[in-house]
């Protein structure tokens, strides 16, 4: 097998790892923070100027503290729902990390979303929302009956606004066996909807289960120049490696035009602000200037009748507070690497390049100039993602197109911090729907454009597979 010193000339042409750079130790450049005394994805960029720190903490408070039902006296924090998924951002992105998915079908999902739609395409929405349920299942409502979990008991009080559905997961398991006979159990989720609040979905409804991703490093990803991403896109697969990433093209509600998407698991959001504003509107039910509507379809009558928390501008969160939360998110720091000089880790790094993981998990970028966020500008960063869509094959497909992304395309998941996610908040969930609980399982689910790379991984002897996984865990 290849190690730093015994590569033959043509193998070097293939996928030799570049010389290890000390810069790789700090994935967020000067913004990187330590994992001591404990690992966290909710720390401010290490170089965030002192004068900007109070604003970061104000944004953090808004992302942390629960929103409440309107009306209240403290009208800056009301307007929750009436339909919603969680009362705060960080209930799903716990400590800035991944959401959770239940291990059994005894509890409904919480830090996880189900999107839904009907077949078809809409230039501004990317999907055709379900006529009754919209494009996201909201499993919670401000209804007293729901809040008291009363509705399933005999003699229960009636809902005013029924939650849309309680979603449970049934896990289907199977065993994967390597050529060298090592076996791994893989599990795949099946959705189990209970207590549908507004009637049946109809047969042609498309669903997509999505675990909340980690949200550190977003401001750095935002400052990557689009042309640096475009350079990695290989639409016609000109280099014949079976891999042809492409950008999603999505509607930007601020610029009122179609642009390349970057945020979200199918890169379906144009900007960080749109992502945060969309989360407020749909996940928490807090209307804002980008998404002023309540999370109710026309057919959800009582939902539309409930008192909103709108201010004099007709929204539940002002632009000022929305910007504070966006800036908080923008400034969440990547964490420095562990075991950077470890021999096995660096052998694993060789195998990572050798099998070709970096063809999608693009190791590094340089962020562009920025007068607005100079501390995030011109940083050499290591997110391990090309931010492009790739066809990942039928096993990972959700069958639900979103703008240009087909039902089997996903944005390459950034790998920075992936080895710390469990230490950050306990969540092991990997891949878009949380089906993988280890790096190894995540790799084994790769298919489609990643099939060849995966098969090279599978052919490696166990010791080398373990080293590769250890490298990914050090990111
Ligand atoms: C119910 C759980 C939930 C809540 C509440 C929630 N999110 Fe998310 N968040 C998600 C999921 C799931 C995704 C992936 C969305 C997708 O691709 O469809 C996501 C995506 C994101 C992303 C994009 C990350 C990336 O890698 O591109 C950011 C940033 C984000 N959320 C921030 C927020 C903020 C800020 C709030 C509060 C206003 C919030 N979220 C509330 C579940 C949640
Ligand atoms: C063809 C592009 C491609 C190649 C090659 C590829 N990946 Fe991925 N990887 C992706 C995409 C896209 C996702 C997100 C898939 C999803 O969420 O369902 C992903 C997800 C992952 C995840 C889960 C991360 C998370 O936070 O959920 C890990 C770990 C991972 N890849 C590691 C690897 C390793 C190691 C290799 C090499 C053996 C590799 N990948 C090769 C595209 C690729």
Mean pLDDT reading = 93
Provide the β-strand percentage band.
5-15%
Distance between the termini: 23 Å
SSE string, helices as H and strands as E: HHEEEHEEEHHEEHHHHEEEEHHHH
- What ranges have pLDDT less than 50 throughout 5 or more consecutive residues? 1-13
Strand order of the largest sheet: 1-3
Largest sheet: 2 strands, antiparallel
Ligands:
heme C
Indicate the percent of residues in helices.
10-25%
Query: What is the β-strand count?
Result: 12
Summed up, the helix count is 13
Describe the oligomeric state of these chains in a short phrase. Answer: single chain
Radius of gyration based on Cα positions: 23 Å
Structural class: alpha+beta
For the structure shown, list the relevant keywords.
475 residues; alpha+beta; two-stranded antiparallel sheet; 13 helices; globular; disordered N terminus; binds heme C
What features would you describe in this structure?
There is one protein chain. This protein is of the alpha+beta class. The chain has a domain at 76-213 and 272-329. It has helices spanning 9-15, 53-64, 144-147, 218-222, 226-230, 272-284, 301-305, 319-330, 343-355, 421-425, 439-445, 451-459, 462-473; strands at residues 83-84, 112-117, 140-141, 166-177, 183-194, 206-211, 249-252, 257-260, 365-366, 380-381, 389-391, 409-411. The strands form six sheets. It has a two-stranded antiparallel sheet with strand order 1-3. Strand 4 and strand 5 (183-194) form a beta hairpin. Helix 2 packs across helix 8 (319-330). The longest helix has 13 residues, at 272-284. Residues 1-13 have low confidence and may be disordered. The structure holds heme C (2 copies). The site of one heme C has 27 residues, from helix 11 and helix 12.
């Amino acid at each position: 097998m290849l190690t730093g010193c015994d590569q033959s000339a043509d193998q070097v042409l293939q996928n030799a790892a570049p010389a290890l750079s000390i810069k790789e130790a700090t994935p967020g450049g000067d913004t990187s923070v330590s994992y001591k005394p404990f690992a966290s994805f909710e720390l401010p960029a290490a170089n965030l100027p002192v004068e900007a720190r109070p604003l970061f903490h104000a944004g953090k408070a808004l992302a942390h503290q629960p929103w409440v039902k309107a009306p209240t006296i403290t009208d800056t924090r009301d307007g929750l729902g009436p339909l919603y998924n969680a009362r705060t951002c960080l209930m799903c992105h716990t400590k800035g990390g991944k959401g959770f998915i239940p291990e059994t079908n005894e509890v409904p999902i919480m830090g996880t979303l189900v999107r839904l739609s009907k077949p078809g395409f809409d230039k501004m929405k990317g999907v055709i929302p379900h006529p009754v349920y919209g494009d996201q299942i909201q499993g919670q409502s401000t209804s007293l009956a729901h809040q008291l979990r009363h509705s399933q008991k005999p003699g229960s009080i009636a809902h005013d606004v029924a939650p849309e559905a309680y979603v449970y997961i049934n896990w289907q398991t199977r065993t994967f066996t390597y050529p060298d006979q090592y076996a791994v159990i893989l599990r795949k989720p099946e959705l189990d909807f209970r207590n549908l609040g507004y009637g049946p979905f109809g047969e042609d409804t498309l669903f997509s289960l999505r675990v909340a991703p980690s949200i550190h490093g977003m401001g750095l990803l935002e400052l990557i120049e689009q042309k640096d991403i475009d350079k990695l896109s290989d639409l016609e697969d000109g280099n014949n490696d079976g891999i042809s990433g492409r950008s999603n093209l999505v509607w930007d509600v601020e610029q009122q035009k179609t642009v390349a998407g970057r945020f979200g698991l199918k890169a379906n959001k144009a900007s960080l602000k749109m992502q945060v504003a969309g989360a407020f509107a749909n996940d928490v039910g807090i209307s804002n200037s980008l998404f002023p509507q309540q999370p109710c379809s026309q057919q959800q009558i009582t939902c539309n009748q409930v008192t909103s928390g709108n201010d004099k501008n007709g929204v539940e969160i002002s632009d000022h507070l929305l910007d504070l939360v966006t800036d908080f998110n923008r400034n969440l720091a990547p964490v420095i690497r562990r075991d950077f000089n470890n021999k096995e880790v660096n052998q694993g790094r060789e195998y990572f390049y050798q099998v070709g993981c970096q063809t999608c998990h693009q190791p590094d970028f340089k962020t562009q100039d920025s007068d607005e966020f100079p501390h995030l500008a011109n940083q050499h960063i290591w997110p391990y993602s090309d931010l492009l869509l790739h066809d990942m094959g039928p096993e990972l497909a959700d069958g639900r197109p979103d703008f240009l992304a087909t039902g089997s395309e996903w944005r390459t998941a950034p790998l920075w911090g992936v080895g710390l996610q469990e230490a950050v908040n306990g969540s092991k969930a990997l891949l878009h729907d949380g089906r993988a609980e280890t790096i190894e399982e995540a790799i084994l689910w790769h298919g489609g454009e990643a099939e060849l790379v995966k098969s090279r991984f599978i052919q490696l002897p166990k010791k080398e597979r373990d080293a590769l996984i250890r490298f990914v865990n050090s990111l």
